[in-house]
């Protein structure tokens, strides 16, 4: 993380500290204890990755820092509101799932064109989101696109810089965005018209985050009983899909705890999270290859069910405490 | 219709000077709503976003359609609908209750003929979801006087083209279980946009063969007859598809692709669609994505607004749009900015029906 970025983050932290109510309840707690530190960690890991690429852009040198940045992203990947939604950043950082393999196609085009202009600082910001970020860089570190072509090495460096830039911008922009969440209901705040809306917004991140783990991270490789799709596991060549679920669940459990802070206890939700976390821990099956085998498949299905039970528990218990629910229209389409 | 209600409406129609929409407080919009205790209402909303009246409904509503001259609206139940209520918005009373014939279900939307003498309702045959348009005599107590095929499976919104008696209907293509809303045919659905004469002749039909899993469900119409159709994607949610199409009779449809950073923002779901006054801008809402996306009438993306659970959408007299959400907000949307007008204690349901 650069000095200026640290300075900006310190400024936004101070601002948040000033706005936090003394009781430190729900929304301020979630922002100061989970969201801002999570983005700070991701920005730091992305900067470490970019710095490593400046020194040595070989695949061997970058796999470690890339995995560390991916780990850090799992701490915040469920947050789909605010700065990460601006300029398509969330997609540019993690373009997955990608059912039509758009990322690989765009990336092959980039490498074939070998346009030096794309390597200039800031140029990748205009490129396809599908070819960038953790998944774009990951393809150049594992498997068929990992090769000795100098342009690929330079592209790794440029992709790492692009992601570090976005991570830094998200940290910076969360300063004013925190203010919007914390000043919900104040005159002129048209984003959050009262404190319930701010609580609702963060609660929604928790619920959709759980659903993403169950429906996408597990649901895609599970496919159907007749047609399991282990090749659809997240970041397959890096063999980290199961670790991603565990990291995401841990971050979501912490977010649930922060939202309950000062409001009440959520024993059922916490127990449901612990059960899912215990089931996620199966090092012998790092990328859900087990879905193709009936016994292994059952274990993955049980994990999926446990994640859905954690969602149900959070909806009932935490939703009740916070006085929020799934959206009236969003939950029931027509 | 109950005999007593029939006599009452007959008496009202003959004995009193004819009421107009001014007697209902001149609402600019109608919307279904719910309170926190599980009660449902049909409400009138002023141009400034204030609730003018709220009439109790026996169950969750969906959309409504307003009589062209009388202060009378038909509020439709959420599908599979077993009732529609003809509501006298001036007196706040129910003047008729429409019940679909045996084996038919209302699908949440309806439209009047230009003179208001006939009401057309979007319906399905309960078994198989084949589409029907129910025909009701709105001049004489809402007797059912006929029905004809809608031109597809699972029709949803129906509108009448301005200055014409031609109906346009969104045949969503989804067959559902007759007892609930479970979809049964997502792997072989065939939605279409159909134009029908008021006698039921199929005049024109538009299909999108490459987007056959994109259920065409909601409609908006500009005064020159340009039809906007909003879709709900039943395929892989990670596959970005356009959710808005524009069609003029006799021409090829235009599909509206969002800006690249917006391709997943709607979560594959558009809940309502409307043109702004003048018909130069058209927008779709997604309560699932918490997003409104606006496009030009040529199909180019213009702006977007983020707002949780937003769904109801209509034109704003001052330009741009008015939108409603599940948190009770009525807001004006203009050039990518959201201006809150009123915040109600009720949750606004899917649709905002413009009376403008």
Automatic annotation (TrEMBL), chain A:
InterPro entries noted in UniProt: Imelysin-like, Imelysin-like_IPPA, Imelysin_sf
Record keywords: Signal
Superkingdom assignment: Bacteria
Any GO CC annotation of this UniProt entry: cell envelope
Subcellular location: Cell envelope
Name of a matching Pfam family: Peptidase_M75
Keyword Protease: no
Database matches in Gene3D superfamilies: M75 peptidase, HXXE motif
Residues spanning the signal sequence: 1-25
Keyword Signal: yes
Domain annotation Imelysin-like: ranges: 35-308
Protein name: Signal peptidase
Organism of provenance: Pseudothioclava arenosa
